[in-house]
Amino acid sequence: MAALGWLTPRRRSATARSVLAGEASAEAARKTSQELEDLAPEPDLAVAEPEFPVLGDDRAAAFFDLDNTVMQGAALFHFGRGLYKRKFFEKRELARFAWQQAWFRLAGVEDPEHMQEARDSALSIVKGHRVAELMTIGEEIYDEYMAERIWPGTRALAQAHLDAGQKVWLVTAAPVEIATVIARRLGLTGALGTVAESVGGVYTGKLVGEPLHGPAKAEAVRALAAAEGLDLGRCAAYSDSHNDIPMLSLVGHPYAINPDAKLRKHARAGDWRLRDYRTARKAAKVGIPAAAGVGAVAGGTAAAIALHRRRR
Questions:
Q1: DSSP 97
Q2: H-type alpha helices, 11-151
Q3: Would you place residue 215 in the very low, low, confident or very high pLDDT band (cuts 50, 70, 90)?
Q4: What is the model's pTM?
Q5: What is the set of active-site residues?
Q6: CA 250, 241, 31, 88: dihedral to nearest 10 degrees?
Q7: How far is CA 151 from CA 13, 132, 184, 265, 283, in A?
Q8: Residues 170 and 193 sit within 8 Å (Cβ to Cβ)
Q9: d(CA 181, CA 25)
Q10: DSSP label at 144?
């Protein structure tokens, strides 16, 4: 299993490993999508926007980045907290996860060095464990740490696509197992995520291709669209990060959600739609107390500092 956002942002086209990662993620996503579709809630057509998404357009779909787009913070950090609680690793690894999360929440951007460390840590932690075991634990961890961190505004956008009869996929560098759990709990179609190698249902500690990040995300969306018969020009994609510009540029309806500075600039230049649920004004509209957001950041930072002091 691998962590989110490990790679340094790329300025080149997809490599062969990116294509492999994208195709592997698309294949894994399609295997679980039918199960999630069966569990999806009945659509409420009154919620859908009248002009977009287009009702009944089955050749359109929506692709949502996960971290800081659908959910506040990094999914892998919350998963790591749950694994620590279950004695999967020691306090020093938790301290590293805490520092990475504190930086992510304060800076709002991915740090390549932190993400590389998180990826290596996650792979070593799950090596030798069964895939089914991690899926079961993931369900528990979602309830413990993730459910309350879903952005209501972004969730409403995803629901609008579902209500219009369209499929909705998470696309994330987080492990596909974690992403699939989150997609299921949100009633989405499925998830594209990083595929960790397993043999006989047991993790080997290696990846298939590379993390689903940057160009690999675009390759995964492209592969899934081809397999599902989608018209990318009629599809939508949502992300907070400039690293996802390749994915956003594939579709006819790109959205910048809680964008970082580079993505905001790019979105404005391209006349893309923007949504920001982080400010007090936006938070009030979607029912998030501003004080709670500030407290969460302060609390995460304090926890990281306390853990660091214990190490010393």
A1: H
A2: 16-39, 75-85, 91-107, 112-126, 131-141
A3: very high
A4: 0.70
A5: 65, 67
A6: 160
A7: 31, 28, 16, 22, 9
A8: yes
A9: 15
A10: I
